[in-house]
Design a protein that fits this description.
By secondary structure, the chain is α/β, with parallel strands linked by helices. Helix content is 57%, strand content 10%. The protein has a four-stranded mixed sheet, sandwiched between helices. The radius of gyration is 20 Å and the shape is globular. One of its GO terms (cellular component) is mitochondrial inner membrane.
Length: 264
């Protein structure tokens, strides 16, 4: 098991956990099987019901905080055959190793009680949501959503617990440095977002800017570099997680800049 801290901007990065440790958990195996079936829906033709269901489901999942996705990828300590005593955290030298160490520790301290709290909240709402099943022929969306959030908080909570129980070893990665050698990073204050984003905020308080932010923007990690990093470390899931984190970070910057401007 290893952790990566990948720079998105000069002062913003995303974590990803890559684990190949076998797990004996039936729940994890069932979810992995379901995930594979879900991804198969994405291979359907664009106009089919399967593909539309997949796209809408992905849009919902992409709204979940990228930090939660990171913690969900950390296997539960009790579910793996052997738990490592030390886990390496690899980062590019364009980032400050001490800042990463402080940030990750703060994230774990903050998210462990947070996900524990909302795990119980989601569990409390499951019986209430179950009552919607009395309506015939209509899918019980509230129940499905609460079960999804319950599992998500459960996984993130146990992921945070697991990382807090091991020794984290922070290591500068020459491989990441080589891949990102020609990449230029700006800070959140310096990065210049496309003018079209500001235009859309003037037209609507909650504009759709996904198509713009899912393109290369100067000062932000290139999408091609994300793909290269994922392939280099043989971790296909990393590409999806990093692109999700990249989008959420840029969307937050856009909201803070342009939504406030419109209010003024």
């Amino acid at each position: 098991m290893r952790i990566f801290a990948i720079p998105i901007l000069r002062n913003k990065w995303a974590y990803y956990c890559h684990s190949t440790i076998p797990t004996g958990s039936r729940l994890t195996k069932a979810v992995d099987w379901s995930s594979k079936k879900w991804e198969q829906l994405g291979e359907a033709e664009p106009d089919t019901l399967k593909r539309k269901l997949y796209d809408r489901g992905n849009n919902l999942m992409n709204q979940l905080d990228y930090q939660e996705w990171f913690l969900k990828n950390v296997p539960k300590k009790e579910d793996i055959e052997y738990s490592p005593e030390k886990v390496s955290v690899f980062y590019s030298t364009c980032l400050d190793g001490l800042e990463i160490e402080k940030d990750l520790q703060h994230l774990l301290d903050e998210r462990e009680p947070y996900h524990k709290k909302y795990m119980y909240y989601s569990a409390y709402w499951v019986p209430v949501a179950s009552t919607f099943a009395i309506v015939p022929l209509i899918p019980n969306i509230p129940l499905a959503y609460n079960l999804f959030r319950l599992y998500s908080h459960y996984k993130a909570y146990n992921g945070a617990r697991h990382l807090k129980s091991v020794s984290l070893n922070y290591v500068a990665s020459p491989e990441l440095d080589q891949i990102l050698e020609n990449q230029i990073f700006d800070t959140t204050d310096q990065v210049k977002l496309p003018d079209e984003i500001e235009k859309r905020f003037l037209e609507s308080p909650k504009p759709n800017i996904q198509d713009i932010l899912h393109q290369n923007i100067p000062g932000v990690i290139d999408l091609e570099n994300i793909t290269t990093i994922s392939h280099h470390f043989e971790s296909p899931g990393m590409e999806v997680e990093l692109k999700r984190a990249r989008y959420q970070m840029l969307a937050q910057i856009a909201k803070e800049r342009f939504a406030k401007q419109k209010q003024q």
